[in-house]
Every structure is written in structure tokens, then in C-alpha cells.
Specification:
- By secondary structure, this protein is an all-alpha fold.
- The chain has one domain.
- Helix content is 87%, strand content 0%.
- The protein has three helices and no strands.
Length: 91
């Protein structure tokens, strides 16, 4: 599943269905921002870095799967082309 689609699913479905949890999370975020800004910034940047790493892993693995399927398809086509030929290897 695409990472951006997963994030969109989380924001659209989960937050719409659990509005009270969203309000509590927003309150805790504001509280941390004003009471302990250093802790808030540390947590924010760590989560931002982890999100970037997960997005990078998701993008690279999707491209890798696509390349693998492309090579398998090319190999099948090559095998079909050679299997139709009759080669006589008698000496």
C-alpha cells in the first residue's frame, strides 16, 4: 500500500470517526508546545524524520517490486521466443 494513501486513510477515516481523541491530541500538543517547547520540538522532529524514512522505504520498495515484475515478464517473453525455435545440436 502506498505510504501517502495510508496517511490519507489515517487522517480521513480515523480522525473523522474519533473526534474526541483528535481534540485530546490537539490539546496535549498545544500544552506541550507552550509548557515544554524543547520536548515538543524534539518529538516533532523525530516523528518528522521517521515519517520521511518510512516514506523513502515505501517508495523504494514499490519501485523494486515493479522492476522485479518487469524482469520476470521479460524473462518469460525471452523463454517463449527461444522455446519456439528448434535447434539441432547433432555433431
Amino acid at each position: 500500500m502506498n505510504f501517502l494513501m495510508m496517511i490519507k486513510h489515517i487522517f480521513s477515516n480515523y480522525f473523522q470517526n474519533n473526534i474526541y481523541i483528535v481534540i485530546v491530541l490537539a490539546g496535549v500538543t498545544c500544552l506541550l508546545l507552550f509548557r515544554k517547547p524543547k520536548l515538543f520540538l524534539i518529538v516533532f522532529f523525530i516523528s518528522l524524520i521517521l515519517t520521511g524514512v518510512l516514506y523513502l522505504i515505501s517508495t523504494l520498495s514499490t519501485k523494486g517490486v515493479y522492476e522485479e515484475q518487469k524482469y520476470i515478464y521479460e524473462e518469460k517473453q525471452l523463454y517463449r521466443n527461444f522455446s519456439g525455435l528448434k535447434i539441432d545440436i547433432t555433431l
